[in-house]
Amino acid sequence: xxxxxxxxxxxxxxxxxxxxxxxxxxxxxxxxxxxxxxxxxxxxxxxxxxxxxxxxxxxxxxxxxxxxxxxxxxxxxxxxxxxxxxxxxxxxxxxxxxxxxxxxxxxxxxxxxxxxxxxxxxxxxxxxxxxxxxxxxxxxxxxxxxxxxxxxxxxxxxxxxxxxxxxx
Length: 168
Hints:
This protein is an alpha+beta fold. It has helices at 2-14, 64-75, 104-110, 126-142, 155-164, and strands at residues 22-33, 36-41, 45-51, 54-55, 79-87, 93-99, 102-103, 115-116. It has one domain (2-149): CATH 2.40.50.90. It is 35% helix and 28% strand. The chain has a five-stranded mixed beta barrel. α3 runs parallel beside α4 (126-142).
């Protein structure tokens, strides 16, 4: 709880700050899915990171397991740099994750294993927003990954549909 409060305080200090607020470095010790990883910082503190600018298919959704595997290939077991300025409502740090100089979120979009999450595009730098949008356009044109489906279901619609069908 203390870590969440500290992260929240840092995030509040970032409000209105141009660009990215903070950087953390560590080793990715877990990949939850195609857009969420756990980074071990300072050898002992685990930080759950939601990859900024993307939304990957849910694990139970078509291409969900492939998206998780792809994120693992990009980041798992590697030293990463996370550029961030926000904590989401679940207490996750939201940031751009780079491993070996590769932007793992951009890579997910390029390989057709994530959508550019346009609902949060204004939180990205102008350069990242353009790169992510262009990468999605290219993946759609090549019909790569999830874009090989006739009508891929965005994860936000999948989550909404799944929540509506849960028993009360």
